[in-house]
Design brief:
Blueprint (H helix, E strand, L loop, with lengths): L17 E6 L2 E8 L2 E10 L4 H9 L7 E12 L3 H15 L2 E6 L1 H10 L7 E2 L2 H18 L1
Helix pairs in contact: 1-2
Length: 144
């Protein structure tokens, strides 16, 4: 269960060593890995928890230079997740957060169908995601 945040809460300034919630059939856990926040999700992402999934992930956007959304443990993901992932992509871009999605079979299939232009940054493994974020960082530094 997610504890509601008050209007005075500033979640983007706090990163616990590990933060886990149970969310209507999905378990979401965030932890720090160097300068990257890793959000691991297991279970089902569906209409009952997609908004809380977004809220949970979004609270970590901008807290660290990098964000990995590890969805390898997701057993089901609803179609609306495409628009939510696009929204997270926009949030990360606005905050200057480099990020990548690591997806399992269900997520990869949804992305293949729902993101044919490959707008979303994906990776096949956690290591590849870290490398992708490092390359994005190098590219931004070279452009500055």
């Amino acid at each position: 269960m997610i504890v509601p945040m008050s209007a005075n809460t500033t979640p983007r300034r706090f990163m616990p060593a590990s933060c886990m919630i149970d969310c209507n059939g999905a378990q979401l856990r965030a932890h720090s890995r160097g300068q990257v926040t890793v959000v691991e999700v297991t279970g089902d992402i569906d209409a009952t928890n997609i908004d809380r999934f977004y809220d949970y992930v979004n609270r970590f956007v901008g807290q660290a230079p990098g964000l990995i959304l590890d969805l390898r443990g997701v057993d089901f993901i609803c179609v609306r997740a495409i628009s939510i992932l696009m929204r997270i992509n926009d949030d990360c871009r606005a905050a200057g957060t480099r990020w990548a999605i690591v997806g399992g079979p269900f997520v990869r299939r949804l992305l293949h169908l729902g993101d044919p232009g490959e707008t979303l940054p994906t990776a096949d493994s956690g290591r590849q995601a870290l490398n992708r974020i490092a390359i994005q960082n190098h590219t931004r530094q070279a452009a500055s």
